[in-house]
């Protein structure tokens, strides 16, 4: 990828009064992976589903890492800037106007969504994160996240997104003023059906808040 115009992605307009779901796949996924979730999370909604721009042994990712759970934070920061730029371009290119964009990410996709909301809240203010964790290592966040909202869904025994990092993430978001909904279930990495139901209810509440 050299420009945002060349970023591989799928787009579906949906109904104008609905939000647009920014679908962000996990490691090794593609822009097609989360499409089945879209209708379950927000019936009739639009979606914008890009492909992770980083390659790791032939697998698509959103940013580089040194090892499992060891993120290249400088690359995280750079890639969030790129994703923010893509969102801005897509809003104009696809004529989204002021429609609400809600990121829905799984694993690595959740982490890039969270990092983008932390560093570019003016571009991405709503995130559903399945099996995500704190993505910025030792870096502190001094942004004012008032007006943003994040729904965190994690398994308590997830070795790929350790609970300590998940709790750190919530603490950082709370301190920065974000409205955080957190659900921790039994089990490990993945998306549980109960979490899909919870995320759908959360998205519905955010949409209702925006239109009331």
Written account of the structure:
The model has no long low-confidence stretch (mean pLDDT 94). The N and C termini lie far apart (40 Å). Helix 2 (73-93) packs across helix 3. It contains five helices and eleven strands, in the order E-E-H-E-E-E-E-E-H-E-H-E-E-H-E-H. Helix content is 34%, strand content 24%. A seven-stranded mixed beta sheet has the order 1-3-2-8-9-10-11, with helices on both faces. The protein has a single domain, classed as Rossmann fold. It has 212 residues and is α/β, with parallel strands linked by helices. The protein is globular and about 40 Å long.
Principal-axis shape equals globular
Mean pLDDT across residues: 94
CATH architecture: 3-Layer(aba) Sandwich
Class in CATH? Alpha Beta
Main sheet: strands, sense, barrel: 7 strands, mixed
Secondary-structure content class: alpha/beta
Strand order of the largest sheet: 1-3-2-8-9-10-11
CATH topology: Rossmann fold
What share of the residues does DSSP label as strand, in percent? 15-25%
* CATH-assigned homologous superfamily: Alpha/Beta hydrolase fold, catalytic domain
User: What is the count of structural domains?
Assistant: 1
**Secondary-structure element order, N to C:** EEHEEEEEHEHEEHEH
* Tally of individual helices: 5
- The low-confidence parts are none
- The total count of strands amounts to 11
């Amino acid at each position: 990828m050299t420009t945002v115009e060349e970023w591989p992605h799928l787009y579906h307009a949906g109904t104008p009064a609905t939000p647009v779901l920014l679908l962000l796949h996990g490691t090794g996924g593609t822009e097609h992976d989360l499409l089945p979730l879209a209708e379950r999370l927000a019936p009739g909604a639009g979606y914008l589903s890009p492909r992770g721009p980083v390659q790791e042994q032939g697998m698509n990712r959103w940013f580089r890492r040194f090892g499992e759970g060891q993120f290249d934070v400088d690359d995280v920061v750079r890639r969030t800037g790129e994703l923010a730029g893509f969102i801005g371009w897509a809003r104009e290119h696809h004529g989204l106007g002021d429609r609400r964009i809600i990121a829905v990410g799984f694993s690595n996709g959740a982490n890039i969504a969270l990092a983008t909301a932390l560093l570019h809240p003016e571009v991405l203010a709503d995130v559903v994160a399945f099996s995500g964790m704190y993505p910025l290592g030792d870096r502190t966040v001094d942004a004012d996240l008032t007006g943003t909202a994040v729904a965190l869904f994690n398994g308590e025994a997830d070795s790929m997104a350790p609970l300590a990092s998940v709790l750190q993430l919530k603490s950082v978001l709370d301190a920065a003023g974000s409205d955080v909904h957190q659900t921790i279930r039994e089990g490990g990495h993945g998306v549980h059906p109960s979490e899909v139901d919870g995320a759908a209810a959360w998205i519905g509440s955010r949409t209702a808040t925006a239109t009331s």
